[in-house]
Amino acid sequence: MKRNFYYDIADELFEYEDIGKYATMKKLEQVNFSITETTFNTSRNPFNKEKGIYCSFNFNDLDDDKTYKKLCKYLTKYLNAFIFELTKKDKPSILFVGLGNENYIPDSLGPSVVKNINANYFFKKQIGCLVPGVMASTGMETADIVKGVLKCHNYDLVIVIDSLATASIKRLNKTIQITDTGISPGSGVNNFRKPLTYKELKVKVLTIGIATVIPYQKIIEEYLTNHHIKQKVSDNIDLIFTTKEIEHQIDYLSMLLVKVINDVIN
Known about the structure:
Blueprint (H helix, E strand, L loop, with lengths): L22 E8 L2 E8 L11 E8 L5 H23 L6 E5 L10 H6 L6 H4 L2 E4 L4 H4 L3 H11 L4 E9 L9 E5 L18 H4 L2 E12 H11 L13 E2 L4 H20 L1
Parallel strand pairs: 4-5, 4-6, 6-8
Antiparallel strand pairs: 1-2, 2-3, 3-7, 7-8, 8-9
Helix pairs in contact: 1-8
């Protein structure tokens, strides 16, 4: 079965009837907040998803202090659990990689977060930070840059931070996903690069992302579905949208991730 769009947020794939052949989903719902855990049992699936666990944290208004604290609490809990499961160590050495383009706000999450993580590899041999830039600026694949660093330094785990694409307007800047499968940079907008995965890097990879953009096709499809209109949407229009408050939201959400990550590694 051919899919004409790659979904970054795994649980959004459950709109397809055949998803149950390849994945299962569990959901924890609370007021203004939910966690959805999607487990792909095989990489041999038509959805371009690697075998592994995808946890999405969905929230409404983070101006509400209770929701903010609850989100931080669960993100910290899950991130600790993922790190221990992948490394079997209480204090593993971790390389944080911030993917994205610093000059394009919706794609700047990775660099914004990683530049504020407490790096200490030069004296404690524990936490390293890398912002490899984008191929248009460096002329190099991000995966090759990361592999170069890994040849010089021994890390137990690579944690990648990146902006993600969503299939729903309601998810923009309101969904954080953690997955133990690695990531293919740019795949959410059909711009596939070398993957950052265990197979490619020979080191376990954890990915943390936030949905910051939505393709034109998904906006139209969502509108047609909500209004019960059956009409095919063209795949030839290559447009990506975000919110008008994206600069403020990226600043706020990146600092939230920085707080959670620094609490986990310190």
